[in-house]
Amino acid sequence: MKIFLDTAHIPAIKKWASTGLIDGVTTNPTHLSKQESDPKKQVLEICSLLPDGEISIEITEKDSQSVYKQAKALAALAPNVVVKIPCHTDYYEIINRLVQEEVSLNITLVFSLTQGLMMCKMGVSMISPFVGRLDDAGQNGMALVIQLREMIDQYGYETELLAASLRTVEHFQGAIEAGADIATLPVEVFEKSLEHQLTDQGIAKFDADWSKLGITQFP
Fold this sequence. Notes:
Elements: E1 2-6, H1 10-17, E2 24-26, H2 29-34, H3 39-49, E3 54-58, H4 64-75, E4 81-86, H5 92-100, E5 105-110, H6 113-122, E6 126-129, H7 131-136, H8 141-155, E7 160-163, H9 169-178, E8 182-185, H10 187-193, H11 197-211
Parallel strand pairs: 1-2, 1-8, 2-3, 3-4, 4-5, 5-6, 6-7, 7-8
């Protein structure tokens, strides 16, 4: 599984990129606006921090032709940019055109099996079902991830399944169990997933037992 951080916070990306655990970053206009610096410079710095990773950058234009032009401009920023476009019928023709022109696309706001199927038929790079938002609407977000996994495998599509809107460690674990190709996580959820109280307790016990020997240097 590939793990992406869902953030535009440069220090956090630097910290975790150095561990080799992070395979990419997903950003959105909200993330970029929080950093109070030029969005283009932010994007370029993030791309440079993970040159072999995939950096999703979301469109902000609305009408289809403007979306097309912006998508092409975003893709030209760096070779590892993946352009995020919402899964809306207004953009289907543009999505297909961009795929034919070999622009890497992450289609976001996927909320149904049929939406996912249509995007896979077009051959987009990634689809992003939003687990947390489906849960908010009283539906089972993780069930959709499972359905999409089964559909992609059944028909042999090459589109990657990116589990998004993961708000808890349990969401992350569910995405792992469902077989998502990618999980994108808020930094706090990613960091919390690395912790376990029994690990901390075990270290504390080892330290206490070792201190009984009174040894200051070993070996």
